[in-house]
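Q: Start with the shorter request: fold the first protein.
A: Done. Sequence, then structure:
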Amino acid sequence: MSDLFDEVALAYDQTWTQGWNGRGQRRRVWEYLSKLGTDLRVLEVACGTGEDALFMSELGWEVHATDSSERMIEQAKKKCASAKSVIFDRLDLMALDRTDISGKFDLVFSNFGGLNCLSARQLHDFKLFASEQLSPTGSLIFVLMPRRALLERWYNLLKRRPNSRVSEGVARVRLVDNEVETFYFDPDFIIQQFSDFQVQDVRALGFVPSYFSDPNSRKASLDPLWRGLDFLMRTLQVGPSRADHYLIHLKRPKKNV
């Protein structure tokens, strides 16, 4: 798994972070995070090239950023070279029992589908790991991809293509010259899996699949259409289970003394 993401580390910012779709969705995540307060201690999972770690450090947060890909971490370290409150570690989500990361974090955070690389069983194992890392009043904030993304569903119907994202909740997604198995989780499923947490918020971030807006894709020629549909669907407040990415905020409940 980490080898696949090593291959896209150099191109990730160009194809997603710097594109209109990635910028817009990330801005909405940052607007949400910025309302959480100051002096938080954060464990970031699947940090990628460090864009979010840098932002959180600028909020005054202490960030322990992790990723399974060594090359992603290399890129993140370069980006965050001046950020004194960020440290990096490699964390293999498929081998959580072998990590020595431990601490009582105020927030466990994962952006843009980092957890969609996990099967339902692996997600359960991650839940146990994340729960151990949280402070007694800590929160989880994940940005995930649901099964029933509306624009992708329409597009596949138009092209008369099968959509295993909807029918099976899993799909083989192309990553450079390889494919990675990707699992899709609707908000209701996450709420059920994390039933011992209280739901603080669930919101759609954007409706255009990331590969639609990849500048190297032929679909990018339809950017004005994608932008218009994305704006319309956000204006109409279409539900998060129909989005391409949604944000979910879960909080550990207070214990009665």
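Q: Next, the second protein, separately.
A: Sequence, then structure:
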Amino acid sequence: MGRIFSIGIAGTVLAGSILGCTANAQAVASQPAEGSQPTVASQPTVVSQPTADSQPKVPPTVTPSGIAAPATDADTADIAVDPASLLPDLPTLPPTKASLIGGTIQKVDRVRDQLTVQVFGGGKMKIFFDTRTHIYEGSVLGSAPDLRIGDRVYVDTMLDGSTVFARNIRLAAANAISGRSQGVVKSYRADKGELVLRDMLSPDPVKLRLTSRTQIVQDGHAAYANQLVPGTLVDVNFTSQKDGRDAQQVSILAVPGADFTFGGVVASLDLHIGLLVLTSSTDHKTYEIYLDPSVITVDDRLKLGADVTTVANYNGTRYVARSLTINSR
């Protein structure tokens, strides 16, 4: 009994020693090391929220006067760019003298910007144009789409290297353009009122329409349409319509078999083919007179500048001299 009691006391002492060591170890661990600073528990950081007054102020965008603000995508979405504005400007036209050409548009090539014009009096001409060309319809400024086949035009042309270029193109303000043709009658059909001429300057026959308003004259007096026999030499003033040419006046200059007297100065002479060109002292026009060596005797007095008088017969194609007199000065 006494042994048991002593063992209990010893166990109690041992447990107390263990607890005491543990307490001392905890006390040693909590003491700061020699020479070190005591640790201070960190305080939680408090982030302050910016107030309205503390927000940075961004200065407003100011656009200088007269300078547009930059366009946004929304502003430029509907803007279309003209492809022609991307091309370089054409050089200005040189200040050369222009020549006036009148005729009818036979073809329009809008790819090459080229007109083919049937020239009044005969022949065809290809004429180029571009944005430098001024196109007028009467007194109104027109454009290239106004150029149509069959239109009558007057073109101020100039040479651009080896090509003919149109400085100005003038379309008729009205539906008619006046013209003139001189030639020999090939045929006349009274039922259709159609007169066909062999124009002196045109390789193609010229068709004209005689109407109730057409005047026919000879030597200043009224004449008749039945006098327009083949071979008759005529001078015609006409107006060009969309559907043809209407003759305004037909002047009969010569009928086959008629004799004419010409007086004037020899302008040209070719005795090899028997051709004398005379400038009339009356109307100052030139006439071709053919010399038949079996009829006309030529001497040294017949030369350029000689003053002559001749009676010539018109045979339907040309004047043939029946007599020739060289006048003394």
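Q: Describe the second briefly.
A: The helical segments are 2-30, 73-76. The two ends are 197 Å apart (CA to CA).
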